[in-house]
Structure to design on (455 residues):
């Protein structure tokens, strides 16, 4: 046991996971979260691990990139994924949670741990001594961002991210919207609002002409959208069919009331486009418009989105918002251990380092927390196998081209190829999964056993 204490700055997914892993190793940790003393442009509560954009952690299936990351984190006993599983809500093939209960549970769990000192105050500069995990996320406060910029000697990179609206379930017209999963696979967990061609074209026209909100404090000229999270109005402006090949894809979605979707006689009943809504809470009272991240003015959102069949009288409990995400140039700054090259006792995790998505942020928190604890104990930091999704992701952000560095979500394109080529994509991804989990188990068994988990 050591009397040394680790400092974790930021109570998002990465900071929450990092603090928990440090405490489980028997190391005291001080976790700083500035909310509610100071709010951010996107957060709505003071809870730890608040999910800002969506309530979904991505695909559940382990032969999908996000699902494999889930599986790896379950094996490593991630507190975030364990809590997500505990408070999951129906979402077809995705891991989605009742976000309010999820965040509240994590806040209580960490605040109750005897080795975690949760402090509600803003940290304006990086502590000069001790082991520190920086997990302040894409909305790092101004003063700390300036201090980090001075420490690294580099400008932040940035892109603009957006959150989608949430509507009350009772306000959705169930005579139009139907509950179904794509190709009738798995649990029917999405409400689907079908559009014919005329409805779709009118909706797109109004969306293209709708008034966007001012960016206010954000620097308009530096706005750069992340391709994996484009505002719906941006998609609409990219072409007549862009939304129909994206979030409004109608393929495989068919109302059971129309008959058997496999019957050629019912072909004419297939919708031209479909807007999907995903359940937000266990009771099914709140529904998220899937893929409808937006920066439209709130009045415009209500006007345009109520053109969607089934949402004519929708009651909105949260409107879409847009905010700037910032991230460091990790290839120049970080090792794959998530330690800064110029200061090994300083680690970083989460979207701040250029990983994209909730599960990737959680994975970064696990590794940064684990290596912070090992640093305190005088044990060499761990490097994860590149054949795992976690290892491949952290190798990428530490070795990619710094000149063109952009946030990276988990994906099979960054994992080393198989020794024997497999043409079928589903089979190939399954083999990636099998190799990843086998290598992860072998790797974990070889770790220095000095780091004993106590919680």
């Amino acid at each position: 046991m050591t009397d040394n204490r680790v400092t974790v700055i930021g109570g998002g997914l990465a900071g929450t996971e990092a603090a928990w892993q440090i405490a489980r190793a028997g190391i005291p940790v001080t976790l700083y979260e500035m909310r509610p003393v100071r709010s951010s442009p996107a957060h709505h509560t003071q809870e730890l691990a608040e999910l800002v954009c969506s309530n979904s952690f991505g695909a559940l299936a382990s032969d999908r990139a996000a699902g494999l990351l889930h599986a790896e984190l379950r094996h490593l006993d991630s507190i975030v994924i364990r809590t997500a599983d505990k408070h999951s809500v129906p979402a077809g093939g995705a891991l989605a949670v009742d976000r309010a209960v999820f965040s509240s549970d994590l806040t209580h769990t960490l605040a109750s741990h005897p080795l975690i000192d949760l402090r509600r105050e803003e940290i304006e500069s990086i502590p000069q001594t001790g082991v520190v995990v920086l997990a302040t996320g894409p909305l790092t406060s101004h003063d700390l961002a300036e201090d980090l910029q001075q420490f690294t000697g580099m400008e932040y990179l940035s892109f603009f991210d957006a959150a989608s609206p949430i509507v009350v379930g009772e306000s959705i017209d169930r005579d139009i919207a139907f509950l179904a999963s794509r190709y009738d696979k798995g649990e029917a967990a999405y409400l689907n609002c079908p559009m014919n061609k005329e409805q779709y074209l009118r909706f797109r026209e109004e969306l293209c002409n709708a008034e966007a909100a001012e960016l206010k404090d954000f620097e308009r000229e530096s706005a750069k959208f992340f391709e994996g999270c484009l505002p719906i109005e941006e998609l609409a402006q990219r072409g007549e069919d862009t939304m129909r090949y994206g979030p409004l894809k109608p393929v495989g979605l068919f109302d059971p009331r129309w008959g058997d979707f496999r019957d050629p006689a019912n072909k004419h009943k297939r919708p031209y486009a479909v807007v999907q809504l995903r359940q937000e809470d266990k009771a099914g009272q709140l529904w998220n418009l899937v893929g409808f991240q937006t920066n439209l003015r709130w009045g415009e959102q209500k006007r345009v989105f109520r053109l969607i069949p089934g949402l004519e009288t929708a009651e909105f409990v949260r409107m879409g918002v847009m905010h700037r995400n910032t991230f460091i140039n990790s290839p120049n700054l970080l090792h794959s251990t998530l330690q800064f090259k110029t200061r090994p006792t300083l680690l970083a995790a989460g979207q701040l380092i250029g990983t994209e998505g909730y599960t990737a942020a959680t994975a970064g928190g696990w590794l940064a927390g684990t290596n912070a604890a090992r640093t305190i104990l005088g044990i060499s930091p761990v490097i994860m196998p590149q054949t795992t999704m976690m290892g491949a992701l952290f190798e990428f952000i530490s070795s990619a081209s710094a000149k063109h560095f952009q946030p990276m979500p988990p994906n099979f394109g960054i994992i080393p190829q198989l020794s024997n080529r497999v043409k079928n994509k589903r089979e190939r991804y399954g083999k990636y999964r099998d190799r990843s989990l086998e290598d992860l188990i072998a790797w974990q068994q070889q770790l220095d056993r000095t780091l004993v988990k106590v919680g």
In short: The two ends are 14 Å apart (CA to CA). The mean pLDDT is 88.
